[in-house]
Amino acid sequence: MSNVSGPKRILLVEDEERIRKVINIIIRGEDILVDEAEDGAQAVDKISKNDYDLVILDLMIPEIDGFGVLDRIRSEERTRELPVIIVSARTSDKDILDGLKGGANYYIPKPFEPQELISSLELILGIKY
Hints:
Layout (H helix, E strand, L loop, with lengths): L7 E6 L3 H11 L4 E6 L2 H10 L4 E4 L8 H10 L8 E5 L4 H9 L4 E4 L4 H12 L4
Parallel strand pairs: 1-2, 1-3, 3-4, 4-5
């Protein structure tokens, strides 16, 4: 995880540009730096090379799906405690349970209200929007 002081670094993993833009508008702030990955392979690579305070993860992404990315995050000592919020259109009870059992801190079904995402960020990062 990244340094406690300074801006919070978030990796946004989402393959749809329109949704990335919407989430960026919602979460961007003075003390938030957002990096983006369009697929699971890119996400795994960025997580291995950078320190993040949080990952916002879609499940239906190319290359490595979101469950695979989450599994890799939880299997590495350096990232095992990295907070992850799943934001996905996969809303079955099984998907939600699999995400939470896999180690996600929160699971937000799409479509979502901006306040849902903001509230989870405030709780995880200890910030106020």
